[in-house]
Amino acid sequence: MIKENQKHLNKLLVGIDVVVIFLAINAACYIRFNYINNGLIDDVYSFNYYILPLILMIPIYIVIFNMMDLYSTHRLKSILSEVSDIVKCNICGIVIFVVMLYFLKRINYSRFLIVIFFLLATSFMCIERVCLRSILRSIRRKGYNVKHILFIGINNMTCKLIKQIQQNKHWGYDIKGILYDKELEKSFEEIASDSTTKVGIEYKNCIIDNMDILEKYLLSPDIDEVFITLPFSHYDKINKIIHICEKAGVPSNVIPDFLNMVSSKPYIEEIGNIPMIGMRYVPLDNLFNRMIKRTFDIILSSIAILITSPIMLLTVLIIKVTSPGHVIFKQERVGLNKKVFTMYKFRSMHVQKASEEKVEWTTENDPRKTKFGSFIRKTSIDELPQFFNVLKGDMSMIGPRPERPYFVDKFKDEVPKYMVKHQVRPGITGWAQVNGWRGDTSIDKRIQCDIYYIENWSFILDLKIVFLTFFKGFINKNAY
């Protein structure tokens, strides 16, 4: 029944998209020739000269949407993600349209019309999908268009998933029960009674010793999908269950019991024909993404040096006048791939021994600080020379803050996943800093933010962090 509903929904989506694109074409032409051109069309070219190429694009758009998987029912996909895919499809469609005009030799085609059509088609489709998604979510919350699922096995991940399903009714999942044998009965009782992962006892359908009875459950029309949450030590049993599911024509999903060791975005890749589960997807491992980020770093750091050069020159003069010693303070930090580099800062303390500088934190009333040093630390002016580190390639504008080798050796054993931060270039500012975790704050929270940034990097996220850095200011109350 669910599959039939999905087929009908897909056909409906295609039909709605055709109508929406057609409306966008007509609206674009109306705006172009009635508001911008006062109802006048060039004498040489008829209205069909402009509208027919756009109508020819309708089937091409449908193919593009299908290739981008916009006609699959993604219950768990966010609305923002779908909107992002729609924008990408429309950009691709416009590029194809321009190429088509070139081959048709329609070089005088209205540029305004192309721009207006792109904006309207993108807007109309986004509005259409947001409205449709909202309607479907409302329907699923009321118990319609739901998928009936059966859990086989019990572990902490089972309970975690059940809680999320209960809290997100719009996903449209109805849990029919949990099947497990006597070997797992004790595990169920322990986990179900745990207050942190509590599962209602109503999901305890039965205790079975022989998984062959599963076929009887799956042949009923009440089960649409199976989630297998058995420990991997039950490999033979998992293999048998998958075989029974395929025999009954019911989709099955295996949720591995080692997920607590996996990041929020694992991935699968192949070496030869052997699939492997990657524990952490890092977008900046992609060459194109690295090129975008490096270009952004070079442009932004160059602009920043030009803008802040008067402040830096004034800082150099004041440090030179008020405190004996070098103006630039050089310190070893651990960067990309755990390589040590020299980071530059304006000196904010009296000259000290290298052995002390390597292992001591700065405290609130640290006697080593100069009066002007306290000011430039609070206002982050001492960090300005790091723009040159960015130009050199040691650092990025955005990324996890680098730490001294002594503290890296200390934290790698004390803070879970601390060393993950070294999979990308360190930054002058980052996701942790704009969320308030800078200076004398929690290392654990800082690392959580750093890992989120590493796993979710995008150019848009970098722009957001730059904006938040300016919006929230450079003054740091935790900088001592």
What would a concise description of this structure say?
The chain has 480 residues and is of the alpha/beta class. It folds into three domains: 2-141, no CATH class; 147-261, 3-Layer(aba) Sandwich (Rossmann fold), CATH 3.40.50.720; 285-472, no CATH class.
Describe this structure in words.
This protein has 480 residues and is an alpha/beta fold. The strands form four sheets. A five-stranded parallel beta sheet has the order 3-2-1-4-5, sandwiched between helices. The protein folds into three domains: 2-141, no CATH class; 147-261, Rossmann fold, CATH 3.40.50.720; 285-472, no CATH class. It is built from 16 helices and eleven strands. The radius of gyration is 30 Å and the shape is flat. Residues 195-209 have low confidence and may be disordered.
Low-confidence stretches: 195-209
Intertermini distance:
64 Å
What is the number of E strands? 11
Number of helices: 16
Task: Please tell me how large the radius of gyration is.
Answer: 30 Å
Report the sheet with the most strands, covering strand number, pairing sense and barrel closure. Answer: 5 strands, parallel
How many separate domains make up the residues? 3
Across the major sheet, the strand order is 3-2-1-4-5
Beta-strand content bin: 5-15%
Strand pairing plus helix content: what structural class? alpha/beta
Based on the structure, what is the oligomeric state of the protein chains? Answer: single chain
SSE string: HHHHEHEHEHEHEEEHEEHHHEHEHHH
Helix content: 40-55%
Keywords: Membrane, Transferase, Transmembrane, Transmembrane helix
Pfam families: Bac_transf, CoA_binding_3
Family: Belongs to the bacterial sugar transferase family.
Domain Bacterial sugar transferase: 293-472
